[in-house]
Fold:
Amino acid sequence: MLSLLRRAASRVLHFIVRHSPAESRRWGDAMLREMDFVDDDWAALCWALGSTVAISRRSLMQRLRNARDSDAWSVNGFRRWLPRVSVGIAAAAAILTLSIGALSTFAHSSWFDPSHGQLVDRVFIVAIPSAIYAFCAVALWRSRKREASGILAAGAILVAHSIMYFVTYG
Amino acid sequence: MPERLRLSPQTVLVLDAFLGAPKEWRYGYDISRDTDLKSGTLYPILMRLEEHELVEACWETTDAGRPPRHMYRLTPAGVKSARALVRSYNVARGGLAVPRLAEG
Structure:
């Protein structure tokens, strides 16, 4: 059992190391390598968990430092990414508008059953746009990260708004 | 420029472990056993010491097929600084709370 836990912890550490910034990876590899020399399973598990915390903390600090040092938050950086994020938000708004238009057409059709009105509302206004946002964001993430971020931001607002609405009105 | 080195009891413990054999390369797990520090405490200290150029690190050269290990030792400047830091820590603690390493 412990051996299984040791292997699982080692895999988690391995995963974290592979996804750390390059500057932190050397340390992660060092910790991973040392784990091979820990004989006792329990000690190895503790080693892996401690290392995971240490490398995650370092990676986080490194990412924050890189973000602070980049010019994304300067006026020039802001000017560069704002229009592209706005395109993503506009695309998301267009998708929502189309979906509401489709709902309206559907609601006026002869085969619409008013007893399912609430469910149909939720499908057209929340579920379908959210699914399209998620699909578009994944598809665009590699080539158009800023636009994908805009779509994701709009999606997050829609989902947050829907949750608040459902909590308040049921 | 790295921030000022935080001299915690654990950092003193690690420096003291290095001072036991200042010119020798040490493995992380060996230092961990000598100081009784867990990896989650030891490695951030080693990272900080390296950032302050008190410790240098390198990969061990190994036979083909055997993955290398990361090794650490005090830099020449690190030996001097470590002695001074451990001494000043001991003085500040009135010589009572000196971290002691396990023998062997």
User: Anything to note?
Assistant: Chain A touches chain B at residues 26-27, 29-31, 33-34, 36-38, 46-47, 49-51, 53-55, 57-58 (CB under 8 Å).
